[in-house]
Amino acid sequence: MTLAIDGADLAAIRAAAVAAYPHECCGLLMGRHEAGAWMVEEVIACANVAIEPARRFEVDPKALIAAHRAARETGRELIGPYHSHPNGHDRPSDHDRAWAAEAGVDGEVWLIVPVTQAGSGAPQAYLFEAGDFRALAIAARA
Ligand SMILES: [Zn+2]
Known about the structure:
By secondary structure, the chain is of the alpha/beta class. The chain has a single domain, classed as Cytidine Deaminase, domain 2, CATH 3.40.140.10. Helices cover 27% and strands 40% of the residues. The protein contains 3 helices and 8 strands. The protein has helices at residues 7-20, 61-74, 94-103, and strands at 2-5, 26-34, 37-46, 77-85, 109-116, 119-120, 124-129, 132-140. The protein has a 7-stranded mixed barrel. The model has no long low-confidence stretch (mean pLDDT 95). Zinc ion (ZN) binds at residues 83, 85, 92-93, 96.
């Protein structure tokens, strides 16, 4: 299973992680998926409206509503959110896991960007399914 994403989109997400540091950045991945392959066609940067933005992310609800509307109008789907981890970890946190389970986001793909004062690391993708995240390969999209 793979998440295919443009190198330019990955670079933009990494730049957003650096710009937001020491807070978490966040946004939405829009595109399509079929048979275990997700294709990102658009990346939407969103405001992080979490009360503790250095440790949590919460996509601005207005942006989420707009993304759902755009998905209906364009035939795209909301693949899932991306966010950064300013502690430099590239795996879902316990909080991410608990939040995803509570919100019931089965089928969403999350992209996590590790970032520290020294810069951003390689983003990692995870599919949330049956109560847990499992790693997806990332493929460059032509
Ligand atoms: Zn997280």
